[in-house]
Amino acid sequence: MEYDNNIPIYLQIIDSIKTDIAxxxxxxxxxxxxxxxxxxxxxxxxxxxxxxxxxxxxDSMVYTKRGMGTYVIDSKEIIDxxxxxxxxxxxxxxxxxxxxxGFTKKEIVDCLVxxxxxxxx
Length: 121
Description:
Blueprint: H1 9-22, H2 35-42, H3 46-58, E1 62-65, E2 69-72, H4 76-100, H5 105-120
């Protein structure tokens, strides 16, 4: 994984895991790698991996069973909320970029529809 130097690494790893959950690569109730394994996978310090799980647990995305590991929360509502949050982030980035380029609302919508039709249909 290539990291953006402007964003803390633990946040980038959290976004990566959230994307895997939202896309179904990781399912609700799945056990996540240990902090040591996570550190190896992402090439980070184990303390950073611990922080990833701690922050995700504070956001109610995962829970820890003492001595058993860390698991993705088994809640469709939370997963749906996660998907919505990720979609809003993408839309905000897209819209901000298009507005800075001088596109109008109609042009932005037309570009989005055109891109969707090329990619999905």
